[in-house]
Sequence to fold (309 residues):
Amino acid sequence: MTQVRLENVTKVFPIEGQALASIREFGRALSGGPKELLGGKAEIRALDKVNLLIRHGETMGLIGPTACGKTTLLKVIAGLIALDEGAVYFDGQDVTKMPPWERNIGMVFQDYALYPHMTSLENLAFPFVVRQREEEIPEQVRATSKIMGLGFDKLLGRLPRTLSDGERQRVAVARCIIREPRVFLFDEPLSNLDAKLRSQTRVEIKRLLRRFRITSVYATHDQSEAIALADRLAVMNEGRIEQVGTQGGDLQLARQPLRGGLRGHAGHELLPGAGGERGAALRRLQPALPAASEEDAAAWPGGDPGHPP
Ligand SMILES: Nc1ncnc2c1ncn2[C@@H]1O[C@H](COP(=O)(O)OP(=O)(O)OP(=O)(O)O)[C@@H](O)[C@H]1O
Ligand SMILES: [Mg+2]
Fold:
C-alpha cells in the first residue's frame, strides 16, 4: 500500500493568441478563478497550492465542477505533467521528478483507452508482453478474470468495438488491476454509461476497491457516486481543495460554493454558485472537519498546511 501526499502543488497553464481570444469571446476567462490577463497573455491556475494526503489503502473521492482541476490533479499524481511549484510524495519519497512509467500507476478514464486492434485478452496481456514476462499471462489473466466476476471471461476474446460501453470499462479496469498498481486513479470512469450500467459498474469497482485496498483517487462530478465509492472526499473548486472530509459531511458538500454546481442524487444542481459573501457565510456555518489521524500527523510533520484540524 502507498500513501500519496501533495504538498503546495501548483500548475499554471499559459493561454495565448487564438485560445485567449476565443476564451474572451465566450466570457470564460473571467469565470475560471484567479488568472492574470496581461497584454494578450493569460494563465489558468489549474492547481493552486494544493495540499492533500491520501492515506494507505484509502479511496479518496475528488469532486468539483468542470474545470476545477480534477484531471490535472490526477495527472500530477501519475507524473504526466510537470509542476510549477510543490512536490508529490509516495510513502514519504519525493517522486516529483520520477517519470510516469516508474510510478506504477493504474489509470481508468472516461473513454476506456483500450488498444482498439487488440482483444480484451491481448489488452490485459500487453504489459506482460512489453516486460517480456509472457509466462505469467495465463495465471494473471485467470486470477484477474476471477476478480472481475461473473461473465468477465466471456469478454476476453472480443475486440473493444464489439463490446458495450460498460463491458469496455470493465476490461479497462481489469487491465489496470492486472498490473498490480501502487496507486489507482479513476477519472470519471462511469460518465459515459447509462444509469443502470453506471450503478452496476459502480458496485463492481467498489467491490474491487474494498477487496484490494489499493490507494485510489476517484474523480467525478457526481457527488452521490463519490459518496458511494470513497472513504473520504476532497472538494475542489477553482484549482483549490476547499474541504476534505468523510461521508458524514454530506450536508457540507451540498453547501459548497461550487461554480456550476454539483450533481446530486437526482441529478439536480446543489446550491450552484454560492460564491462571494454568501459562500463565505455558508462556509462559516459548516462544522469542523474530523480530527487528523496519526497517519496524517506523521505525514505533515509541521501540521497539515491545507487542512488544519
Ligand atoms: N493542457 C492544457 N492546456 C491549457 N489549459 C489546460 C490544459 N489542461 C487543463 N487545462 C485547464 O486547466 C483547468 C483544469 O482542467 P481539468 O481538466 O483539470 O479540469 P476538470 O476538473 O478535470 O474538469 P472536467 O470535470 O470538465 O473534466 C481548466 O481551466 C482547463 O481548461
Ligand atoms: Mg476532468
User: Anything to note?
Assistant: Confidence is low (pLDDT under 50) at residues 255-291. The radius of gyration is 20 Å. DSSP finds ten helices and 13 strands in the chain. The CA atoms of residues 15 and 114 lie 31 Å apart.
